[in-house]
Specification:
The protein is of the alpha+beta class and about 200 residues long. It has one domain: Nuclear Transport Factor 2, Chain: A (Roll), CATH 3.10.450.710. The chain is built from 7 helices and 5 strands; from the N terminus they run αααααβββββαα. The chain has helices at about 5-15, 35-55, 55-65, 70-80, 90-110, 170-185, 190-195; strands at about 115-125, 130-140, 145-155, 155-165, 165-170. A hairpin with a 5-residue loop joins β1 and β2 (about 130-140).
């Protein structure tokens, strides 16, 4: 997959933030109302379009932190290294993950500017999460179908995953993080430091 294609996939994720394989949906998840998930997705799309208009890392980070299950996505991304992350490092790691996504989205939004997102219908998957189909149209005129996985817990609705062109973005991020950790001798703290630079 080319770097340009990866950038495109990640910027489309910014319409949700920061993923259909999902160990990301916690067992304590409340049942998701499909109509409520569609309405929530419209709010997310509005917030992310606003972040794109501003175009800064902080504007994307605000939308990501507000709408994505950053903790769930971040812990999933560690895979087999999850137990190596000390609890004391969790806040720095979660902040770093949101910064990682926000930096990438801000950079990629210049090349793959989204013109509009048309939120469609939602269905429930086996875990009870809502899968919200969305048609994304770039300013170039290209269109793509994106499926946002919406979970719900005591905090409310959250984006748990984004599936673009058949790729789970949470799964892609997991691969990136695990390769980085492996290249650094299994040191999870090296990833935390790199994410917060």
């Amino acid at each position: 997959m080319t770097l340009a294609r990866r950038r495109f996939l990640l910027i489309v994720a910014s319409l949700a933030a920061a993923q259909a394989a999902s160990p990301l949906v916690a067992s304590a998840q409340a049942a998701v109302d499909p109509k409520g998930a569609v309405q929530y997705m419209r709010e997310v799309a509005d917030d992310l379009m606003q972040a794109q208009r501003v175009g800064t890392v902080s504007s994307f980070q605000k939308a990501i932190v507000s709408h994505a299950d950053v903790e769930g996505i971040a812990l999933y991304a560690l895979g087999t290294y999850r137990d190596d992350l000390a609890k004391a490092q969790h806040p720095a790691y979660f902040k770093g993950v949101s910064l990682f996504m926000a930096r990438y989205f801000a950079d990629s939004s210049r090349q793959y500017q989204v013109g509009k997102a048309e939120v469609g219908e939602a269905t429930l998957d086996d875990s009870g999460a809502a899968l919200v189909n969305t048609k994304v149209t770039l300013m170039s005129g290209s269109t793509y179908n994106v499926v946002f996985k919406i979970s719900r817990d005591s905090k409310g609705y959250q984006i748990a995953d984004v599936n673009v062109l058949g790729f789970s973005l949470a799964y892609m991020q997991r691969g990136i993080f695990q390769r980085f950790i492996a290249k650094n001798g299994g040191d999870v703290n090296a990833l935390v430091a790199a994410l917060n630079r």
